[in-house]
Amino acid sequence: MQLRAAPHGALAGDVRVPGDKSISHRSLMLAGLAVGESRIEGLLEGADVMATADAMRQLGVGLERLGPGSWRALGCGVAGLAEPESVLDLGNAGTGVRLLMGILAGHGFTSFLSGDASLRRRPMRRIAEPLQAMGAEVLARSGGRLPLALTGRVDLVPITWRSPVASAQIKSAVLLAGLHAPGRTTVIEPLASRDHSERMLRAMGAKVESGASAEGWVVEIDGEPELAPQAFEVPADPSSAAFPLVAALVAGDSALTLRGISVNPLRTGLLTTLREMGADLTLANEREAAGEPVADLLVQGGALEAVDVPAERAPSMIDEYPILAVAAAFARGTTRMRGLGELRVKESDRLALMAEGLEACGIEVAIEGDDLLVTGPVGATGAATIDAHHDHRIAMSFLVLGGLGAAPITVQGAETILTSFPGFADLMNGLGASIEEVGP
Ligand code: S3P
What we know:
UDP-n-acetylglucosamine1-carboxyvinyl-transferase, Chain
């Protein structure tokens, strides 16, 4: 599907973006490992999360949709999943396949896992290695890529895993495997990545401890707990909120309220950065929902200044760099975003695609090592056609840019937006944007 975004004026409105993708995947998986009936409210019903739902069903979990975002799950208990009859296809979902690998490592059967063209290109060795150290067998395509076969064991060995990158997907896969290991499994990451798995596992009764050490951020889990079913409440996704947020900040006299977004401190790097750039952002109605801090975010449009974004902030805003790069194109000066090596192995090589795409639109951009540099404010953007390369965040970033610049931008392969943000174009248009379908 091709979507074209045309320049718009100020945006205004009061909206709630769909549920958080990370917490939605985890709700389905953890509900499947609990003993008994869990409820989930606010579940993201995007393609990624629905792929996880299908996989959990194939593994024997009873899942029923009661209404929009409202689900009931009948869990099988830790180590209670059943051998799937066919290949588990996780589509575009890196979180889906990686966390599921951790769970399957503790089950004594063989599963076959695959995904779409984007997921089949992404590195899985970073997950396979710790799981193999715990006793699972993984046979993957060259470069440790999908499709792969994973044979788990019911008696995994508890390990201490030092991850070279701060990655919640690696950390969560090891912790989920640790559920099946007698004793204590430890993950050490260089910086703390998002901690939704830890929060949810604790709420369900697992013993999970975390804290800083000289080696990095340490998380420990005690194996073989019984997990209690939960009433999960999924907050709105701050990574989805980032698109209307940046659009409203840049588009003149905008005023926007984004309801109920997760403001987990390990997810708020974009808010910190935009505030440093001079953005007028206010949190209201701060509260806690099912163990996650949540707030309404009030956004007022205004001028932005370039900043230097430190590498240490990357884990807390890893999915927000594409849209931050768009914001930087309208800020005065050169914004340097440091330490973005991990962006090369996301749904696409986001570093390369952002640089190429921004340049095609007439924006001054450079890559230096793992840093992305964007200089603004751009005088007048030119019309361009951008291929999304199976990457929802690339698609949405350029549609936001098309609304903010001087000329329309067409995005090919825009159906990828459905992986994380169903209703994106309608929500944006409701605020005053102009996004329309222009081709198959
Ligand atoms: C996610 C973690 C991040 C993020 C991804 C979702 C998660 O990946 O990019 O979209 O739900 O754990 P890494 O932690 O591997 O960087």
